[in-house]
Amino acid sequence: MVSTVTTSLADVTSSETALRAFLHGLPGVDRVGADQRAAMLGTRSIKTTAKAQAIDLAISMVDLTTLEGADTAGKVRAMCAKAVHPGGGAPHVAAVCVYPDLVSVSVEALGGSGVKVASVATAFPSGRSSLEVKVSETALAVAAGADEIDMVIDRGAFLSGRYLKVVEEIVAVKAACGDAHLKVILETGELATYDNVRRASWLAMLAGADFIKTSTGKVSPAATPPVTLVMLEAVRDFRAVTGRQVGVKPAGGIRTTKDAIKNLVLVHETAGDDWLSADWFRLGASSLLNDLLMQRQKLATGRYAGPDYFTLD
């Protein structure tokens, strides 16, 4: 993969023609091979002490998320309390993820806990708005205290081949982020092919993304193992070429401890241990944390607690 990248990356985004040539010059993804490798890695069995460590690592990578029209300040405060103290001595999660108007509530609730505040912006989940609105929404979320911005790309522009428009929007939103990290959501369920997932991953990284994220959680399929595999390959290869490390965040459909551990195996076997921390890998989820806590308690006590033992998020 690395040896095929011969174009100067500084020139890739200089024109639509150059960007198109670069993205379509990336090696194609072997769909059968990606599906089979992801399925094979999903069969790895992790037991006892290693499983306990994997569960705590997964908890520390969770972006605990609520993105519903019915979200209230009270619901977000309760979620923040759980993010800081999940229960049973478990580590705190990586971040909470909320709509921009609830960022200030989250910042106040989290205090100096070390849990970051992430906010979706840029006309989430569709991305159908003007650049001015997207930049303004981002700036407002950052001003309210957001540590991270999860932006959605314009899939219509990407799928119609207007790659430079997508790059320019990411660059503008990245500038509006200031010191906040930028996660770029590809919405892989709408990209149709693994080749498009690879192209979108490289496009986002070339434009300055700190993380690339699979999905909004509003479109199915979302974070499938093969898609996550393709994105992990992309960040691995991007670092080999540029020296810059970019994180990955699968989101949507990750509900069980088994799902989470499968993702950790994918990271270890594809990108490597450098990505096995919350600085470089996140799990976007709403219901996952409870299952991780249930499995954690089972390992510690030998007994399962019922789902009603844990708060609903």
Anisotropy-based shape: globular
End-to-end C-alpha gap: 41 Å
N-to-C series of helices and strands: HHHHEHEHEHEHHEHEHEHEH
- Estimate the mean pLDDT confidence: 93
Oligomer: single chain
Number of helices: 13
- Helical content, roughly? 40-55%
Summarize the biggest pleated sheet. 8 strands, parallel
Count of strand segments: 8
* Neighbour order of strands in the largest sheet: 7-6-5-4-3-2-1-8
Q: Which regions have little confidence, pLDDT < 50, spanning 5+ residues?
A: 1-7
- Proportion of strand residues: 5-15%
If you compute it from the alpha carbons, what radius of gyration comes out, rounded to the nearest whole angstrom?
19 Å
| Structural class by helix and strand composition | alpha/beta
Quick recap:
The chain has helices at 9-12, 16-25, 31-41, 48-61, 73-84, 103-110, 131-143, 155-159, 163-177, 194-206, 225-242, 257-270, 288-301; strands spanning 62-65, 95-98, 116-121, 148-152, 181-185, 211-213, 247-249, 283-285.
